[in-house]
Write a structure and sequence with these properties.
Largest sheet: none
Number of domains: 1
Structural class: mainly alpha
Radius of gyration: 23 Å
Order of helices and strands: HHHHHHHHHHHHHHHHHHHHHH
Number of strands: 0
Distance between the termini: 29 Å
Strand content: under 5%
Length: 486
């Protein structure tokens, strides 16, 4: 389990790097662009992320299952993955072009050329993270993602500072992805060993059997997550989209923590499933509590200090986003309970499709009702409702597939104690004395006091996952210290 924890920690940092364009560049770009221009920039990224989801269709993600399942033919699996994504991305941009042309250029608001180029350059030969993760090598993932982060931030911010033009920023990012694709093609040509490997037992069929339902589920999840963004952009305009985007600013961080743990745990769950059905379930339950330990303090602190954080970091023009951010925290709580790995470990991905259909329908219906009355806040409430419908559906399917009841689905004792610790520690930050005396720096001091109390309460309650994290942390520190000695 310690080895898994090390890989999960490295991958979390790596994924944060990969999401750096969303996490760091907005803080800079809101100072260089007007609210409307920033909204237009986010509109392009919104359309680009949707196209990427269609093009990739969870094919890269299937490497986490296919490589452990057929370890003797790693590069044949990788080559097959590259071919599938190349065909998928070409089909996606072709359909987009036809639809946009048929609608007189109104489908993507004049971004067609940039979107086609960005999609083709960004998704092709971008399997490296999953290839390394499937082999338990999180270190290269960190290097790759960190370099990509640095390049994206430099290109976006420098272009914005020099030109203050959204179009130029977008094409600069397209150029960067073209350079990445060229480098990836060279690396793939040098490293490919598929000719020396035995043929796959079931070429195409095994991978498609995994990634078609999983990809459809991922696509539907992306649509469900972004439907409210699209409605805000189209119905309320670029300024409202900018506010909504800042309200969901922490989403990449939340998804990174959850998905990084899941990505590391899934291959191990696949291996354990060959031994018994109970082993992967126990590992998944432990990771659920770990998710809570990391994310619950975030919920409490952001709920308390949303307004000063938004105004200080993004400026007074984004004050309305504070309420959106507080509503979004309900989604953060739901994200602690990621049922997908439990189902994917036993290759039961159909429920992922069903749950996302239910969530998409819920979100669409709620948007029709709430947006006319509550505007941007209504869009966020619709997103919250959809996320809980998704969780409920997956919880029911997980119990059915593992033949267990609600009492054995989750480690309720650890979950209850973690929630109690998070709420109890909040008494330290209820008072406004922190910010009254120390100003904005008081938020950092209050956060440090809160986190210290939270950790002490976790350990005092002897929550197994917290004790395990403490032990793992001590081993990691001592190992680093002994390595650093001459």
């Amino acid at each position: 389990m310690s080895a898994l924890a090390n890989r999960a920690a490295i991958l979390t940092l790596s994924r944060l790097a990969n999401y750096g364009l969303m996490l760091i560049s907005p803080i800079i770009l809101v100072r260089l662009l007007t609210v409307e221009e920033f909204g237009r920039y986010r509109e392009f990224l919104l359309y680009a992320s949707l196209l990427q989801s269609f093009a990739v269709f969870s094919i890269n993600d299937s490497l986490l299952y296919c490589i452990p399942a057929q370890p003797q033919s790693v590069w044949r699996t990788v080559r097959q993955t590259a071919v599938l994504i190349a065909g998928g991305s070409a089909l996606v941009v072709l359909v987009l072009s036809i639809l946009d042309y048929g609608l007189g250029g109104r489908l993507v608001g004049g971004y067609l050329g940039a979107l086609v180029a960005y999609t083709l350059f960004s998704v092709n030969l971008d399997f490296w993270e999953y290839y390394w993760l499937a082999q338990g090598r999180a270190g290269p993932v960190f290097v790759y993602s960190a370099c990509r982060l640095a390049a994206r931030i430099i290109v976006a911010t420098v272009t914005a500072a020099l030109t203050h033009d959204v179009g130029t920023i977008i094409w600069a990012l397209v150029g960067l992805e073209a350079v990445r694709l060229l480098g990836a093609a060279i690396a793939f040509a040098v490293l490919d060993r598929s000719r020396q490997e035995p043929p796959l037992a079931e070429p195409w069929r095994e991978q498609l059997r995994f990634c078609v339902p999983s990809g459809l589920a991922s696509l539907l999840a992306t649509l469900s997550r972004n439907l409210s963004n699209v409605v805000v952009a189209r119905a309320l305009g670029a300024v409202s989209l900018a506010q909504y985007t800042i309200g969901r600013f922490g989403e990449p961080l939340v998804v990174t923590v959850r998905n990084s743990i899941s990505a590391v745990v899934l291959p191990e769950m696949v291996r354990k499933e060959r031994q018994s059905r109970e082993a992967p379930l126990a590992l998944w339950q432990r990771t659920t509590v770990v998710n809570m330990i990391f994310l619950f303090p975030v919920v409490v602190l952001v709920a308390r200090y949303a307004r000063p954080l938004v105004v200080t970091v993004f400026g007074a023009g984004y004050e309305r986003a504070a309420l959106i951010m507080q509503i979004y925290l309900l989604v953060v709580i739901r994200e602690c309970f990621d049922f997908a790995p439990a189902l994917r470990a036993i290759n039961r991905t159909r429920p992922l499709v069903e749950s996302n259909v239910a969530a998409l329908v819920t979100c669409g219906a709620a948007l029709l009702v709430l947006v006319p009355y509550a505007g941007v806040a209504g869009a966020m409430m619709a997103f919250v409702a959809a996320s809980y419908v998704d969780a409920g559906w997956l919880a029911r399917c997980t119990m059915k597939r593992y033949e267990i009841g609600p009492a054995k689905l989750l480690p309720w004792a650890s979950i209850g104690k973690t929630a109690l610790a998070a709420i109890s520690a909040s008494v330290l930050i209820v008072s406004s004395v922190w910010t009254d005396v120390f100003g904005f720096a008081g938020i950092a001091l209050a956060g440090a006091a809160y986190l210290t109390a939270f950790v002490l309460l976790l350990l005092a309650m002897r929550i197994p996952e917290a004790v395990w994290l403490q032990t793992w942390g001590k081993k990691l520190v001592f190992r680093r210290a002994s390595t650093a000695r001459p």
